Amino acid sequence: MSRGTIVRFAVIALLLIAGYVWVWRTRVDPSRATLLVTAVIGSVTAIYALITYEILLRNSAMANAASESTALMERSLRFSYAPNLLYQTINTKDPKLRAKKGITPIDNDDYRRAMKEYTEGEEQTEFVFAVVRNVGRGAATNVAIDAQYRVWDSSSANQGLSVTRQASVQIVPSDQAIGLCIFVSKVPTGDDRVELISASVSASDYYRDALREPAQKLEIDRNTHRTESDPTCVIQIR
After folding, report:
1. What does the pLDDT look like over 124-176, one tens digit per residue?
2. 43-96 tens-digit pLDDT
3. Cα–chain-centroid distance for residue 186?
4. Nearest to 159 by CA among 194, 118, 109
């Protein structure tokens, strides 16, 4: 029992004792008897009201505790199912990305055209990919990539060409990645470069899907996004 409850019961008890002492010291006649009965009824009512108030306080405390427990459980579940997506641009001479841990190329028209330019063991053609890796604890669902790059290709008359690539994947498991083909250079030189203009990644997870919550959208900062090039590649990635 809390100190506040003890104090409230003590105050009620003192008031009741004072009332009874006052009634006891008065002369007992019909009017005083009625006053005594009224005092008894008032006492019972006061005690009942106090008990009811204490029950309400207890119920409120239990409801708050249950609410906090539910919120903590929800945060724990969200953390267990939450993905964490990282975006980077890579340059490689292997479009199959076999040397890159856990990266699966997205099999779309751009990738199929890139594979037509690839010859096993050929050491010249370079391939630029946008890679989205899931480093979170849970799988990412309904992943959508929207990326725009500017390409300078010395073998083409179109300098500073803007290319837009879009793709969607149903699931990206934890510690796995997907690669979206951006550009293929058959005759790469040190003057060639691929520069990110803008990119965004939207994704959900199993928990959000169960609650029918909208997907989260990640906007990529072009000035700080990560890049990676194989040692033998010459195209500049920015």
Report:
1. 899 999 999 999 888 999 999 999 999 998 887 777 889 999 999 999 999 99
2. 667 666 667 776 777 777 677 766 665 555 655 555 666 889 999 999 999 999
3. 41
4. 194
12 neighbors 52 (Cβ within 8 angstroms):
no
The neighbouring-strand residues paired with 133 are 86, 177
- The full set of domain ranges for the chain reads 3-81, 85-237
Token representation of residue 228: 């990676």
- 236 phi/psi in degrees, rounded to 5: -80, 135
Q: What is the mean pLDDT of the chain?
A: 82
Query: Under a CB-based contact definition with an 8 Å cutoff, are residues 215 and 203 in contact?
Result: yes
In 10 A of CB 5, how many CB atoms?
A: 14
Give the pTM: 0.69
What Rg, from alpha-carbon coordinates, does the chain have?
37
Query: Position of tokens 């096993």?
Result: 120
Alpha helices in 82-127 (DSSP H): 109-116
Nearest CA among 149, 136, 145 for reference residue 218 = 145
Q: Can you point out the beta strands (E) in the chain?
A: 85-92, 103-105, 126-134, 140-152, 161-172, 176-185, 193-204, 216-219, 226-229, 236-237
The per-residue pLDDT for 31 is 60
Local structure of residue 97 (DSSP, 8 states): -
Backbone dihedral angles phi then psi of residue 149, each to the nearest 5 degrees? -125, 155
